[in-house]
Each structure stands twice: as C-alpha cells, then as structure tokens.
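Next comes a single protein record:
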Amino acid sequence: MEFKSLKNIETSFKQIRFFGIVFIVLCAAIVGYSLWSAYGFAEAQRHKIYVLDGGKSLMLALSQDLSQNRPVEAREHVKRFHELFFTLSPDKNAIEGNIRRALFLVDKSAFGYYKDLQEKGFYNRIISGNINQALQVDSVACNFDTYPYKVVTYARQMIIRESNITERSLVTRCNLINSVRSDNNPHGFTMEAFEIVENRDLRVIDR
C-alpha cells in the first residue's frame, strides 16, 4: 500500500512538471507574439504623418521611400524646364521671367542657347511680330540604369502668328543629375549638357 502511494506521488509530480513546462512554453510564446506584434505596429506608425490643418483638424499622410518617386519627379522636372524655356509671349518681362525660372533647372548649356537666340534677335522678333509660342511635351524618356541619367524629350511647338500657325517637332536630350532641393528647384535635379537634336516644321495652318 505504501509503495502504491509513492508511485502515485511520483506520477503526480511528473504531471505537475509536464503541465508546468507547457505553461511556461505558452507564456513564452504569448510574450514573443506580443513583442513581435508591438514591433510591427510601431513600424507601421513610423510611416504615418499627422498634419495639423490650420490648427483645426488632423489629417493623416503616409510617408514613402524617396527613391520610389524619383522617375516621376525627373520627368516633371524636364517637362517644367521645356514649358518655361520654350513657351513665349510677345512680352519682354514675361519672356525674361520664364527664362530666368527655367535656368534654375539646368546648367549653363541652356544659357548658351538663350544668349545665341538673343543675339540673333529672336526674342525681339517675337515681341515685334506679336507672336505666341506654345509647347506641348509628348513624352520624356529617362534611363535610370546609369548615372547621370540620360533623358530624351519629344515635344511639339506651336508658333502662333496672326496669319498662320506653324507646328514644329522638337527633340532635345540632356543628362540629369541629383541636386539640392530649393524653392527654385523643388524636384532636386539639374539638367546637364542640354542640346536640341531636332527642331523642324511639320505643317503650317492658315488662319
């Protein structure tokens, strides 16, 4: 009888030890899962930015990796330069203002084109002839496989006179390098070695 009692005590002790080990393992698993969930939640919160709108309400904005948006910014940078540099109106102040803003986006290569046109009296003829020149960018091809990035821009110019409208094909190319962002250069790029590859008449429409 005494031997049977000792055996029951030993069996009970093994059961208690087994359940104790199971309980400890479960506690460790719960703690580990809680830590992992807390880390994931904290990491997700790092990508959220709350913006105070005029001191009245909070707006949620999501942050993202800067490099993900660079191709879009590059195309917009090049497009913006072409619109400023090639869109002209018969107003000296408007021409100078557009050219000045465009030159913040490019190196001195574009300034050479500007000075050459200025010396040939191109801008004076725009003003005296009451000519408007509008530009429509069709596409901007950027190669991001190598640095500096190679860019080719395809656009159409509309030279609007009182008697007719001349449509021209414009193709340019340049290198694009990373630069410092500023109010005058919000995308943080600079165009280098800018050159006009093609600038030819497509058609003339009488008015």
